[in-house]
Amino acid sequence: MPRKTAARTARLASIPLGVAGRAVGGWGKRLVGQDADQVSAELSARTAEQLFAVLGTLKGGAMKFGQALSVFEAAIPNDMAEPYREALTKLQAAAPPMSSQTTHRVLAEQLGRKWTERFASFEDTPSAAASIGQVHRAVWHDGRAVAVKVQYPGADQALMSDLRQLQRFSRLFQALVPGTEVKPLLQELTDRMSEELDYRSEARNQRAFAKAFDGDPHVIVPKVVASAPKVLVTEWVDGKPLSSVIRDGERAERDRAGFLLAEFHYSSPARVGLLHSDPHPGNFMLTADGRLCVIDFGAVAQLPDGLPAAHGRMMRLALEGRSCELLDLLRDEQFIRADSRQQPEAEHVYAYLAPFVEPLESETFHFTRRWMQKQAMRVSNMRGQDFRTGRSLNLPPQYLLLHRVLGGSTGILCQLEAELPVRELIIRWQPGFAD
């Protein structure tokens, strides 16, 4: 894994450079008469292939970015999305693995030289790979099937290198989102992502979730068996990955997966005081008995008092069209900076936010790619008022992970094309909405 900033920056820079080179080649093909649609499809496929190769090799923060991006492919028009959908779905569950020799060295460093005595058997070929580690199937010495997550050597330096690069780009981000206070937002992102480097912290999070959901009829969280700073051993659970449900699941299966995912995210802060904050399909499975299995608790938001009641009040005010009260509440919660040059008007803020609470207008809502594409086009149209309004809004650091989860899980619901009673879940689990 490249660890130094210069090497990682060069790899990341290769993506836009590669895109530019292919675009020039594509223009040349069009000039000599090749079909424009065929050329565009070829460019998309090659760009997606490069994106997967570069981000997968880098792992660290770069791959985390790719995984986060993958849940938003539902917002891309269908005729452009397929190559990216395929490449980014691969990124959710696979990456070039480290060698068996390296894996054994890390296990010896973390579990002791006699680490093999802890296992009845250990499969050297990894069953899955993620941004900062890979997972091996094994059998614990007491006969339990376990998942062994081993952190890539150098993952800590790589992740911090990527985060430092983000910090260096803070002025660029500020220009792109002038209403947002970028530096504290990036600092919050750095703090939360750096916590993921210590698997003992992840083990504490997972133990808390496993205890709260023990015996739950809808959710299963694998129990932690052993942990070290760079190795985590948990019980093995078999299931159908959410990416497979997205690809070929039946309607009832899609709807159930969507409901269980939404219920898990909305209920967790009240039940555990924590929010699982890494919403991509690779972290969820449907088990044979119809439960949602949740894994990877490295990224977790601390919410000891549950979901913020102010967030529920925002939903209610937007749903009821109370634009002036909504604007005042957004100011109180620092979604609008007092020192911002762009002070939005109440009716513009309401028009920007109202479509996002459309799922709460009826008893059930059918999340679709078309609906998400419509929202993405609306807020990204540089000629529209919604684009200008969005640029005047700030994202307070304390809401960073909550909005990451809401955005990411909504993307998954749209990938699933799931229909579910989301209003019922909000009324039950979101403080402030029904008050």
Automatic annotation (TrEMBL):
Pfam annotation, one family: ABC1
Coiled-coil intervals: none
Membrane-spanning parts: none
Keywords for this protein: ATP-binding, Kinase, Nucleotide-binding, Transferase, Ubiquinone
Matching InterPro entries: ABC1_dom (IPR004147), ADCK3_dom (IPR034646), Atypical_kinase_ADCK (IPR051409), Kinase-like_dom_sf (IPR011009)
Domain ABC1 atypical kinase-like: 90-304
GO molecular function: ATP binding; kinase activity
Family that this chain belongs to: Belongs to the protein kinase superfamily. ADCK protein kinase family.
Name of protein: Putative unusual protein kinase regulating ubiquinone biosynthesis (AarF/ABC1/UbiB family)
Protein's organism: Actinophytocola oryzae
